[in-house]
Amino acid sequence: MNTKTLWIGLVLVTLFSFSVLLFFGKEIYRLKPPIPEKVVSDKGEVLFTAQEIKDGQNVWQSIGGQQVGTVWGHGAYLAPDWSADWLHRESLTILGAWSQSEFGLPFDNLAPEKKAMLEVRLQETLRTNTYDPKTGVLTLSADRVSAVKNNTDWYAGLFMDDPSLANLREAYSIPANTIREKGRMDAMNAFFFWASWACVTERPGSELTYTSNWPPDQVIGNKPSAGVVLWTGFSVIMLLVGVGLLAYYNARNRSDVIDKSLLPQDDPLGGLNPTPSMKAVLKYYWVVVGLILLQILTGVITAHFGVEGNSFYGLGLDRIMPYSIARTWHIQLALFWIATAWLAAGLYIAPAVSGHEPKFQRFGVNLLFFALLVIVLGSMAGEWMGVMQKLGLVKNFWFGHQGYEYVDLGRFWQIFLFAGFIIWLFLMFRALWPALIKKSESRELLILFSIATVAIALFYGAGLMWGRQTHLSIAEYWRWWVVHLWVEGFFEVFATVVAAFLFVRMGLLNIKYATTGVLFATIVYLAGGVIGTFHHLYFAGTPTAVIALGATFSALEVVPLVFMGFEAYHNLQLSRATAWVKAYRWPIYFIISVSFWNLVGAGLFGFLINPPIALYYMQGLNTTPLHGHAALFGVFGMLAIGLMLFVLKGLTIKYRWKTRMLSIAFWSMNGGLMLMLLLSLLPVGVLQTVASIRVGMWYARSADFMQGDTMETLRWLRIIGDTVFAVGSVALAWFVVGLKTGWSIDRSQKLYKD
Question: Model pTM?
Answer without folding.
Answer: 0.93
